[in-house]
Specification:
Helices cover 38% and strands 14% of the residues. The protein has eight helices and eight strands; from the N terminus they run H-E-H-E-H-E-H-E-E-H-E-H-H-E-E-H. The two termini are 19 Å apart. The longest helix is centred in the middle third of the chain and has 17 residues, at 130-146. Helix 2 links the parallel strand 1 (29-33) and strand 2 (56-60). The protein has one domain (8-231): Spore Coat Polysaccharide Biosynthesis Protein SpsA, Chain A, CATH 3.90.550.10. The strands form three sheets. The protein has a four-stranded mixed sheet, with helices on both faces. It has a two-stranded parallel sheet with strand order 1-2. 32% of the residues are buried. By secondary structure, the chain is α/β, with parallel strands linked by helices. It is globular and about 50 Å long. It has helices spanning 8-19, 40-47, 66-80, 100-108, 130-146, 163-166, 178-188, 216-231; strands at residues 29-33, 56-60, 85-88, 113-117, 124-126, 159-162, 193-197, 199-201.
């Protein structure tokens, strides 16, 4: 989370309520506060430990580390705590916590990477401007072909990954391109990958506006890893350094 005071409590309570369905498994909600300068830290501190949110762990960055940096912090904590999987999701509730059960089913089937997909059968995009849908659809079709059609929704950040697989990756991207870098390295490592259908919804009106903007640099970063995958390029994969 970064400056998500409008949705911080709503998001954490909804995810924690969903995790209670899986009482037979050990679960936790790890929220990385990426140096928010609004009321987000105070809200998370108040919510933690309250009824239904006792599984909440808040990790705080003193300086903004970006999307990729926040994911690494959360992943390292999950590894230290001995969890088998990490499930990444956005904090603005554009990813429905009700879909967590679909991920759990695939985890039980032994998949290494589980991607939520807007573009497989049963997937959808709701309330997003047509031009954003068009760019995303075309871009993902291109990336899917370059990745060998391993997945159809390559850029989606709603995904689960086996912790020991993440530990074998060296991820350098601090922005959203880490999603593509992650998929690229997962394929190099021979990961078993699958998709589950889900519906992406627009950011709620009560939340802050999305900071994501399509620029030439964005297209380069997003297509770099699919192209490397198509060319058969192998990077040296070493265990990531723990902070």
């Amino acid at each position: 989370m970064h400056n998500e005071e409008e949705v911080a409590e709503r998001c954490t309570r909804r995810v924690c309520a969903e995790l209670m369905r899986f009482s037979a498994q050990r679960t936790a909600l790890i929220v990385v506060d990426d140096a928010s300068d609004d009321a987000t830290p105070r809200i998370l501190s108040r919510v933690g430990g309250t009824t239904g949110c006792d599984r909440l762990t808040v990790l705080t960055h003193g300086r903004n580390a970006g999307y990729g940096g926040a994911l690494k912090t959360g992943s390292f904590h999950a590894a230290r705590e001995g969890f088998d999987y990490v499930l990444f999701m956005d904090s603005d509730l554009t990813n429905d916590p009700g879909d967590i059960g679909k991920f759990v089913e695939k985890m039980r089937s032994g998949f290494d990477v589980i991607k939520a997909s807007r573009y497989c059968r049963g997937g959808a995009v709701v309330g997003v401007p047509w031009w954003r849908r068009l760019i995303s659809n075309v871009g993902n079709r291109v990336a899917s072909v370059l990745y060998g059609r391993a997945v159809r929704d390559c850029t989606n950040g709603f995904r689960a990954i086996r912790v020991d697989l993440l530990a074998r990756m060296t991820l350098v991207e601090n922005g959203f391109a880490v999603i593509l870098e992650e998929l690229y390295q997962a394929r190099l490592l021979g990961a078993r990958i699958c998709e589950i259908p889900y519906a992406l919804t627009a950011r709620p009106r009560y939340g802050k506006a999305s900071s994501f903007v399509y620029r030439p640099q964005v297209f380069y970063l997003y297509l770099k890893y699919p192209i490397l995958s198509a060319l058969g390029h192998r990077r040296c994969l070493e265990p990531a350094r723990r902070p």
